[in-house]
Every structure is written in structure tokens, then in C-alpha cells.
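Each record in this resource describes a single protein on a pair of labelled lines. An example record follows, reproduced without changes.
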Amino acid sequence: MWQSLLILLTTTHQALGTNAGIKALLTSKGLQYGKHIGTNLLQQKLGSLSIPDVTGQVDISPLGAVDFSLNSMRITKFNLPEPSAEFTEGQGIMAAMSGLNVQVHGNWNTHYTFIRDSGTFDVALYGMHVSLLLSPGTDDTGHLSLSSQQCVSGLNDVDVHFYGGASFIFSLFLGSIKGRIMSEVQQKLCPMVNDAVGGFDTVLQNMKVSVQINPNILVEVPLLSTPIVGDSDMELSLKGEFYSVRTHAEPPFPAGQFSLPPDSSRMLSLGVSEFCVNSAAFAYLSAGLLQVNITDNMLPKGSPLRLNTSSFGMFVPQLPKQFPDMLMLVQAFASQPPRASFLPDNVMVDMSVAAKFFAIQPDASLAPLFTLEMEASFKVHVFISEEKLKGSVALGNLTLSLTSTEVGPFQTKSLESVLKTGIQLLVLPKVNANLTAGIPLPTTPSVSLVNPVLKVNQGFMTIATDTSYSP
């Protein structure tokens, strides 16, 4: 029985750990835009494409064999039709291009016994076409992979003209040369495409799936499963979990399930779960970053409440009698990791903060006074405007309780009221001023977001956006 229970618990734990913290959804609109950008980049590079030499030997009986080479070839003219790209459910992305015409100029050389000759030539390749299935996957480390499947290529016709020297000799075996060129092109088209896909796959393999945010915190974003390809989109499920570099401890809560709503009007949708945000809070707590020492000189100069025993005498009457005219030090720290709850159109943040109060004695030693526990909730409204994350924060509930004391019991209601007023008059205005100004959304030098929209749902939030690429 115990063995069965242990196996069940282990299996359940593993299943809970497979839910994604972040999901990304690429739509058909995004695929078409990406295809358009890829075509423009290919067009820029096609003119400088290196073409391998073609060498061979042609028998012109009864004279014997003539060695020839076509070299120094470069593309002088081409048309690049827009390729097609569509999601194929359960398989990947079907990409195809047809009607590509290319004109090539180069040099020719012949060698027959002791006779050598040379000149130039023009070759026109008509109706090149290639189609393939791009299959997305993932490896053991969670990297996205991309492989080429079902590649089919061909060439409709070749036209060749030779100039200079004894170029008329090529008319004797022009058919053979045209056949050789067509054969070479048809044989190398798919390998060239596969090499290009392999090169892109190498780039994917080198991308980091663990990113250090700062010296203390990292976030892991490996793929948890093979991307799911539908008939109009492709979804990626990422771990999306933050860790303390020092402890790498797992949070005491599992990642929940969520599903990204389809939005075919946008190129890309990104979903961030409560788990992702709360794992960040737990990581900061584990790293010892959610604590601070507060002294009197850190309070605003105009604050009526000072951090000394005389001022706190209004809340703790016995304090100035036991420790007269002494400055105080507060060690404040999160007793629990802050917890965000995503609700439709709103975010609730719950915080538990403990504060240990000390008197700074004349010899600079600290005398413990009492410890307070604050439970507070904040209502956060977030949205995107002008490509910035903006919002506002309002105080919900706040309670203050005395958890231990070295100076005797006292009531905390009046101190609780002062703390609420201080947060509403001093803290929140500064926070809301920063949120009103907004935080720029992360972008790259080449890719920017276009009209992004943020929506908070039950358990997760989404950012749906179009993108713009500027090389």
C-alpha cells in the first residue's frame, strides 16, 4: 500500500511540474509576415550568393574527350516570387516557392590535349521550384529545433550562351552541358535548403534557455514539450520559472494549467501565468533580497513621525521611559513571498511583512524592542499604452499585529492607521507616478511591437501584438 502511495505521489508531483509558466502563440498572420521578411532578406543575399564551379568531361567522338569548367559564376539578374507558407496541423510548416528565374554570368575554360581556350557565358535558369516541410521539435535540453522534411525541388529549363574564343565548339555538346547544369541544380537545391535550415537550427541550439537576470536571479525558459502545430497557429510551452542563483529552490506551489485564447487578428500572443510571476517573488525571497534596514534618516524630512523612542511613545507609552531619547532601527523583511493573483482585468498582490524594532543605544548596540507583522493587499491595474507597461496601485486591506515584545504589550490600531495613511500619502503616489510614466516593453534593436494589448485573465495575462522588423 505504502509503495503504491509513494509511486502515486511521485507521479503526481512530476505531472504538476510539467505545466508551463509561459506560452507563446504564433498565428498565420505572424507566419505570413515572417515569410515576407525572410523573402526580403533572401533577396538581399541572393545577389552575392557564391555559386560552385561546374567541371566535367564531354566525349566528342571521334576526336576524343574535352575537359571543361564553368567558373567565377555570379548572379546578374533574378526574380524572387513570394513563397507560400502554411501551418500543417500536427506536422509543421509547409513552405514552397515556384517560378524562380535566375541569370548567371561566368567564365568558361576548355582543355583538349595541348589546346586550351576560354571565354565567357550566360546561363538562364527558368522555373526553379522547391517545397519542404519544416518540422519543429525540441531536444533534451529544451531548445527549439527545426528540421527539413519532404524536400522536393526541380528546374524547368536552362538556356546557355557562350562567347569568345572557340565558343562555337560548345555547340557540339551544348545539350550535354545543359543537361549537366540541370542535373547539378536539381541535385543541389534540396541539400542547399537543408543546409540553410540546419544553420538556423544551430542558431536555435545556441540560444540560452537559462538567462541570468542579475547576479542573484535567473529565469529558465526551456521548452517543456514539442511545439503544437494547429491548422492556423503554433503554440510553444515554456517552463518560465525564476530561481535564486544561490539556492535554486523550487517554490512550494505548482504551476497551474492555462490556455491561450486564439487571436487570429494578431501575429503573436504571449501568456504569462501567476506561477511565473510568483516564482520570481519566491526567488527574490530565497536570495535574501526582500529585506531592508530602515533608519530615521531614510524618512521624509517633513514626516511628523520620527524613528526614535520619543516619537513612538504615542503608540508605545512605556517605550521612552525604558529607552529615553534613542534612535531606532527597523529590520523589515518579507515573512512570506509576495503572492500575485490574476483576476479578470485586475491583479491582487498580497504581502506579509515582519518588522523587528530595535533601540540604538549610546554604545551603538541594538536593544530588541518588539516585532510587528503586517498583512497587506494591493489592487493593481495594468495596461499597455504607447508601447509601455502602465498602471496604478491602490491599497486594499492592511492589518498590523504585535507578534512579540520585550517592552510589554501595547495596542497597534493607532499605529496601523498611521501606517495606512503613510502608504497612501507617501508611498503609493511615487509608485503610481512611475507607473503612469510607464515602463518600456522589452524589444530588440530590429524588432518592435506594434499596437500591443494586455489583458488580465483568470490565472494568467496575455499580450497580443503585431510586430515590425527593421534591419
Notes: The first helix runs from residue 2 to 16. Confidence is low (pLDDT under 50) at residues 1-17. The longest strand covers residues 115-138.
